[in-house]
Specification:
The chain is of the alpha/beta class and 168 residues long. It has five helices and twelve strands. The strands form three sheets. The chain has a seven-stranded mixed β-sheet, with helices on both faces. A three-stranded mixed β-sheet has the order 2-4-5. Strands 9-10 form a two-stranded parallel ribbon. Helix 2 crosses helix 3. It is globular, with a radius of gyration of 14 Å. The termini are close together. The relative contact order is 0.18.
Length: 168
């Protein structure tokens, strides 16, 4: 069974960017683990609640087949988080699927993994992607090698399907 880890903000994550891809992955037989900077209840922008069972600092990339960064305003807590940025690099270096949706694309940009890669992000993160050397496309979904990026909640279903495909 494939295992993925969702990096989710403790509050104000974008509900549909979490639960839609999670639902698609679980229906495909993928085990989804939720991690954050705290253990326990996490609350989305629209009140959706989930549970973080792992601290980001305790994630071992060898235990997972992919990492997914969930968007929403709350994701900004990860933009400069050393553990979060290091994880992006570790998954990238192991050629494992590395995915972000909405503003969480800034995490990938800040980690340096988007240099020379096609990527998309919520419009507020466009400049961060460009500064990082990414080829910002503005498309709803981009897949460039093992990197999957989506620009927001309207792309959540397509994003989830792209992650399933990358895991096959």
């Amino acid at each position: 069974m494939k295992r993925v880890v969702f990096i989710t903000a403790p509050k104000v994550f974008r509900d549909e960017e979490y639960f839609k891809p999670k639902e698609i992955l679980e229906k495909a037989g993928v085990e989804v683990i939720t991690a954050s900077i705290k253990i326990g209840k996490l609350t989305g922008r629209f009140g959706y609640k989930t549970i973080s069972t792992v601290l980001i600092s305790d994630i071992n990339p060898s235990d997972f087949d992919a990492i997914i960064y969930v968007g929403g305003y709350g994701a900004s807590v990860f933009f400069e988080n050393k553990c979060t940025l290091q994880l992006a690099n570790e998954f990238f270096n192991q050629n494992k699927p590395l995915a972000s949706i909405c503003i969480a694309g800034v995490i990938l940009a800040n980690s340096g993994v988007l240099k020379g890669r096609k990527a998309t992000v919520y419009i507020d993160g466009k400049e961060a992607l460009i500064r990082s050397g990414a080829d910002y496309t503005g498309n709803s979904l981009e897949v460039d090698g093992n990197i999957i990026t989506a620009n927001g909640p309207d792309a959540a279903e397509e994003f989830g399907k792209a992650i399933v495909k990358a895991l096959q």
